[in-house]
Amino acid sequence: MAKRKKLVDKLKEKYKLVILNDDTFEEKASFNASLWYLIIGAFAFAIILIVLTLITIRFTPLKEYVYGVTDPGSKKIIIEAYSKVDSLQMLADANKVYLENIKNIINGKVPGEKQAKPVGDKTKASDSIKLNQKISKEERELRKLIESEGKFDLNENSAPVKSGIASYSFFSPVHGKVTDEFDPKIQHYGVDVASRQNESIKATLDGTVFFSNFTSETGYVIAIQHSNNLVSVYKHCSVLLKKVGSFVRAGDVIAIVGNSGEFTTGPHLHFELWFNGTAVNPKNYIPF
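Request: output the structure for the sequence above.
Response:
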């Protein structure tokens, strides 16, 4: 009992905190308080500090680092960001494959993609159906009469419809003599047309220039992307007159015949025509 009384008395004892000037020992401020009030004040300060800390964590982004909880708005932004990154990655991969194929075309190599072989026509004529029942002579004559009708009728749509690469009217890029034929077996995917030095080279179709630069093997090269997956390539030029991104019309002058590059023996144009990623013989479509 006596010890408890002594402890209570000690808590009630007052203490004085004095702030003095170090040089003059002048008293600047003083505080009187008992240990009891100091303990209560310390507890109150701690409680206030804890409350402020909890409020700060609750209503600020700090809760993401303390609790690991994100608000719905942040989650939505993160999901949208990941979706955009994934889309950009797919686009980048597609562009990488496209540019690799274009690079192979410029270098005279066959791209990795193989053109699907056309599947044979499996359709059958309606008159190829065999019937089990016997056909009379009169019915057979009637069928011949009906089938013969209209065979020689003329109408405005009787002309055959062109499709694919055959439907295009190509402009001859340069006039001259073909000195080296198209031969994919030796990786010669175009024709060499001998012409005079400084002869104009013209675009064979409307399109957009996607390559216009110098290569060590084929000299100055310009390539044009046309519609329907058609690409034309012009190599060994002396001067390139169109830049990448330029739109050209069929017959527009795009370069000058030259003798640039390692793989050349005189002024000529090496011309290539690619359809759906496969080299085709330009002589089948263009008179030089």
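The two ends are 124 Å apart (CA to CA).
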